[in-house]
Amino acid sequence: MQIASGTIVGGKVVVDGLSLPPQQEAELLDALEEADREEGISAEELFTRLRRFG
């Protein structure tokens, strides 16, 4: 796994200092769309859950 930072510009992923092949870009966009569809929890709920562990 490689970590890189980037931005979305005009619907395209622009990764700082890295060029993505079309397949990698498609996988990244799919992952971003999946993350957008996921239901999240509020920060308050997150902290409540974390307190259970000390």
Can you give a write-up of this model?
The longest helix is centred in the middle third of the chain and has 16 residues. This protein is 46% helix and 15% strand. It has 54 residues and is of the alpha+beta class. The protein has two helices and two strands. It starts with 5 loop residues before the first strand and ends with a helix. The protein has a two-stranded antiparallel ribbon with strand order 1-2.
Look at the helices and sheets and give the structural class. alpha+beta
Strand residues, percent: 5-15%
Determine the number of helices (DSSP H or I, runs of at least 4 residues). 2
Biggest β-sheet: count, sense, barrel?
2 strands, antiparallel
Rg, rounded, reads 16 Å
Main β-sheet, spatial strand arrangement = 1-2
**Distance from first to last alpha carbon:** 31 Å
Give the helices and strands as they follow along the chain: EEHH
Provide the residue-averaged pLDDT.
Answer: 83
Specify the helix fraction band: 40-55%
List the SSEs and their pairings.
Blueprint: E1 6-9, E2 12-15, H1 22-37, H2 43-51
Antiparallel strand pairs: 1-2
Fill in the keyword field for this structure.
54 residues; 2 helices; two-stranded antiparallel sheet; alpha+beta; 2 strands
